[in-house]
Amino acid sequence: MQTRELMNAIDGEWVAERTRELVEVYSVTMAESEVCRLYEEMLRSLGLEVDVREVSPGRNNLYACIKGQGGGPSLLLNGHLDTIPVGNCPPCYREGDRIYGRGTTDMKGGMAAVLGAVKGLVDCGVSLQGDLWLSAVVGHEETEAKKDGPNALIADRNSGRIGGDRILIVEGRDALWIMSMG
């Protein structure tokens, strides 16, 4: 499969619609259950099995994996579904190629992009060498959560519940940050 074919299989309008659906769901830290249910449905609609990891009652991290054929490194695409509580926000709207609303960049747009990439891989029948892991965590934004979702992700990675030789965090518009979880 050529890279161009895979890129052409990624449907920008489909990704935009998933972004809009996610942004329209209220999901401030500690109140993420509805957006987690929606994201789980979106993952399952792509044919993925989802491991729902309860972080605290009603608050779940979500993990899914596209198994590779072996021999290659595994990649974890990670992001969070909670948003910062900032009072009244205008409703989600679209202007041309841009979508506006609470959490669009931080980071529901990135989470929708993950879905679009996975859909492209599935639709094209791409066989990966290594596993592709997907994770959606809660409790990232506010101090009252004590980073419980990311900490659970780290514990689950260290215990072998999920894999990932490398991690790509899908936040932001135009930067690639090199980081280490230690």
Silhouette: globular
Average per-residue pLDDT, rounded, comes to: 90
Number of helices: 5
Query: Based on helices, strands and strand pairing, what is the structural class?
Result: alpha/beta
In what order do the strands lie side by side in the largest sheet?
Answer: 1-2-6-3-7
Q: List low-pLDDT spans.
A: none
List keywords for this structure.
about 180 residues, two-stranded antiparallel ribbon, globular, about 20% strand
What is the strand and helix layout of this fold?
Elements: H1 3-9, H2 12-23, H3 33-45, E1 50-56, E2 59-66, E3 75-80, E4 93-95, E5 98-100, H4 104-124, E6 132-137, H5 148-159, E7 166-169
Parallel strand pairs: 3-6, 3-7
Antiparallel strand pairs: 1-2, 2-6, 4-5
Structure report:
The strands form 2 sheets. The chain has a 5-stranded mixed beta sheet, sandwiched between helices. The mean pLDDT is 90. The protein has 5 helices and 7 strands. The N and C termini lie far apart (35 Å). The protein has 182 residues and is an alpha/beta fold. A hairpin with a 2-residue loop joins strand 1 and strand 2. It is 36% helix and 20% strand.
Question: Concise description?
Answer:
36% of the residues lie in helices and 20% in strands. By secondary structure, it is of the alpha/beta class. β1 (50-56) and β2 form a beta hairpin.
